[in-house]
Amino acid sequence: MRRTQWLVALGALLLALAAGVSAAKEDFAEVLVYPPRDDGSIMHWLCISPLAYNAAYIGDSMSYDVFKRDGLNELTIRPRAGDVAQGRAWHKMSFNGTTEGPTMCGLFDVAGYGFDYAITVCCVYIYSPVERPAAKFSGSADDALKAVWNGAKIWSNQIQRSPTYDSDQAPAPIKRGWNTLVCVVDQVWGGHLLTARFIDGDKGVTDIEIALDPPRENAVRHQAGPYNKEAADLIRGADALRTEGKLAEAAASYEQVVAKYPLADVAPRAAYARAGTFYGVRGEKSLGKPDEALQALEGLLARYGQDLLAEYALLDVARIQETALKDAAKAEATYRSFETRFPLSSLAAKSLTELARLLASQKKFEESILTYRKAVKKYPNSDEVITANVGIGDAYRDSGDKDKARKQYEAARAMAQDWHDNKYGVDVGKQAWLRGILESLRNR
Fold this sequence. Notes:
alpha+beta; Jelly Rolls; Serine Threonine Protein Phosphatase 5, Tetratricopeptide repeat; 3 domains; seven-stranded antiparallel β-sheet; 13 helices; globular
């Protein structure tokens, strides 16, 4: 197969995998479980935000299924971290209460910013050791609230308000074993909050366990607190070995973390650190085994693809293919796959600038410049904009067009000066670096 055909085939495979990923996923055989607060309030959620209203339902957001446009159904969804709807990803959140109240979950934290006229959806999988046929859902929200319990809509309150505890209640018989709760919270303007629990009689239900991964009916439950503590203790030992330069021992210890505590919060970091002990992509001291590092990174991507470190792992895979294994074709394909695999990532601009740099090193200057320009146009707020503008100058320079290179460097320097003066995050060092490039050019 020729190189071009191989790249096309790989791209098609990645797209097919991305399209079919939801259908291929099975429920978890093991899950971490969290306790509610002492009053039964749920403080751990799987969340997605902000999801847009259907314009036809402005003022009546609760009567519309916000997942319909993605071919999903709010009555049957079983999301997991990393799943995408409306171009947003579900992710795990643990809340500690707000100034409005100790069990108020601040839903703006999900998106990382405030917004108006949109929706946050929160989901949990709840295990109960007993049946509670008289149980009620009890909660409140800012603003409107809809509750779906075990596949049925049990409550909907289209209202604009500040929340008050237990203001919204509806019968919600709790099954012995696993149950599913989905809360859809409307945001008009102002605050954005949710509080939710179950009551039985006049008391909060406190003997339930909360999972953020969709469990099999007979899933093994691990208490999150001690499980994560044991994993954290083990990874600290691995870190100490790595600091002491005992890299082989450190790699074995990191592997033990992943093998023994695969659900732990630190497990993705252990997997990433293990790859780094095999081969230092950025020149760190390592065992000098790029093939083993590549295998470890691919294992991380397969197991923890929803984690932020998976995004860094994919870039590292490309760097190893390019620099250590000297396989430019595979590196190029990996860089190109990044946006398909992680369409919401803040590192997508980085993948494009790395791809453009690789293309320039192969003397594909026109394609390199187009790729740099794509990074600038598609991700205008990224710090990679400066890198891309300098990269365009480099491509012009290396192709022999000194006049265009000089103009491009001047434009990049001016942009860096503007960003620095307006405190947009470009540091003085990068500005000086750009000025040095221009002075070097003038001296030629």
